[in-house]
Amino acid sequence: MSDHKRPLTDWLPITKKELEYHGWDELDVIIVSGDAYVDHPSFGTAVIGRIIESEGFRVGIIPQPQWQDDLRDFKKFGKPKYFFGVTAGCMDSMVNHYTAGKRKRSTDSYTPGGASGFRPDYATTVYSKILKQIYPDVPVVIGGIEASLRRVTHYDYWSDKLFPTILEDSGADLLVYGMGEQPLRELLQLLKKGVPFSSIKTIPQTSVLIHKDEILPKNKNWEDVELHSHEVCLTDKIKYASNFKTVEVESNKLAARRILQKVGDKIAVINPPFYTMTEAEIDRSFDLPYTRLPHPKYEKRGAIPAYEMIKFSINMHRGCFGGCSFCTISAHQGKFIASRSEKSILKEVEAVVNHPEFKGYISDLGGPSANMYKMKGIDEAICERCVSPSCIHPVVCSNLDTNHKPLLEIYKKVDAHPKVKKAFVGSGIRYDLLVKDYNKNLDEKVAEEYITQLVTRHVSGRLKVAPEHTADNTLRIMRKPPFRYFHKFKDVYDRIQKKNGLNQPLIPYFISSHPGCEEADMADLAAETKEMGFKLEQVQDFTPTPMTVATEIYYTGVHPYTLKPTFVPKSKKEKEDQHRFFFWYKNENKGWIKDKLKSAGKPELAERLLGKELRFESDKKSYGSKQQEQRQGQQKLQQRDKKEVPKWLAEKRRDRRK
């Protein structure tokens, strides 16, 4: 059955007419989103809407409202009974709009037809201010990745300045950070009991602004930690940097402290996060009655690229314990893995294979890091005392269960489904978890079986991995393992491929201009990957995004954990120069690379990169010099002859006269 044949009541209402189809004359909650409405568990607006519905509330969605006209989109449903929910969408609106070079993007993957211009910059703040202008007495709850990662004073790359908590700028009443299911359900249950919204200030994983003279909301189980105020951060980069360490550590604890930060005459109160979702809780979220389709309204406007990419994919878990310095996954989803049950995953497989357009291929069977499913601490009491932002850097924690057996069993069961021709793993895997020399906890027999299953049954032509760099000093700042472990993984990958007669390229992802990375490091990366047979075509320039270690280093020039100065390539020229090393094979870059490395005292790197071509150029110059010397010698002889012959003739003539 195609989407246009299904009744509109299968979707949550997005128009006043659809409200009537549901038999409703008003709504309890209205969600305003920067994304088009796709009723699928990979789209946050759909998840939040379905949770609100499951708690017995009437909910509608205003997707991508027009914010530059008479604001009729914001008014079409009238005033909700309880609150407005606001999200910029699945991406921070600024990352969605701009490249690392701050150029405006021409497309938007979360809009029909990939069209741009359907959401504002800083969408959460813009939407919230409009709602507060129209309905000043209605509470506004903000959430999603944009709100989540801007919950304290943060550096905004696009405006190149510090912003206060987004609660201050937006005027919203409550912020939900991280994955919102648990705090949202608690909020809804309190409202059902008749608790006034204004008194709800102690839900875990939420934040509120209170007046500095107001008594702090009470929870006898919480300890408090205070950050440097927003005003102090504006004048002192070191104190601002030190704030980040506190925020990251507390965000990754199982039992965290409440964070307080003064902002003018107010205090931002950031309650500790919920305990990691249980299997039953995360199943409950994924098992809601999604249509798994875009709203029919978009049929004539073209496909939604983000949906096309994930419509035949299965997300098996949330969270990532990698703690990479440049990544926001653990900052938003947490470092502790919340895994779905096998039953829930296989139930979703059934939903996918019954999709009207399914042709037998599941595009991704994965998660934020595809091979972290079911991995957690062996002794959770140890995890409760842990303050490390990463479970696998600088070494793999001895208390981490990295058994790939549960994931392997899922692969096999999905692979055996009669309607599934292939189930690919499209999301990146953590190769370091599969290298015994790095992961001392690894069961080598299971790992060999896992890699064999992966390589022979689940690779769609090529396998993506993300070593990110080759230079040890840069990798340490990135919180990534030394590059030698990538060599070891590649050896195993190539061996299994050869054994099975396969030729599926390994595609490594790298980042340029990362804090701590100097030009020589980029030259080393280019030379190392060239020697491994890679000719890199798609590379990423570091983009500072709120609430990552790398962003704090970029802005402050110091590492927030040590407060020691750290090199940062910041200018446009520095970034472009680093990027050029990736493309050593282009003729226009060869002379530039040679001159750069020669002046940097790294001629050996130049030879590794340019090799025979560099020597050939040198030989040509040497040969040319010899030829020039010979020509100059001949010219001197000729000049001498010209001078000497006339002298000889003159003497002879004089003799004759005598």
Please describe what this structure looks like.
Mean pLDDT is 92; it is low at 615-624. This protein has a domain at 3-209: Rossmann fold (3-Layer(aba) Sandwich), CATH 3.40.50.280. The radius of gyration is 31 Å and the shape is globular. Strand 6 and strand 7 form a beta hairpin. It starts with 15 loop residues before the first helix and ends with a helix. By secondary structure, the chain is of the alpha/beta class. The strands form eight sheets. The chain has a nine-stranded mixed sheet, sandwiched between helices. A three-stranded parallel sheet has the order 22-23-24.
Q: Could you give the order of strands across the largest sheet?
A: 3-1-4-5-8-9-12-11-10
End-to-end gap: 124 Å
Shape: globular
CATH homologous superfamily title of the domain at 3-209: Cobalamin-binding domain
| CATH arch. level architecture of the domain at 3-209 | 3-Layer(aba) Sandwich
Task: Give the strand content.
Answer: 5-15%
Which residues form runs of ≥5 with pLDDT under 50? 615-624
Mean of all residue-level pLDDT scores? 92
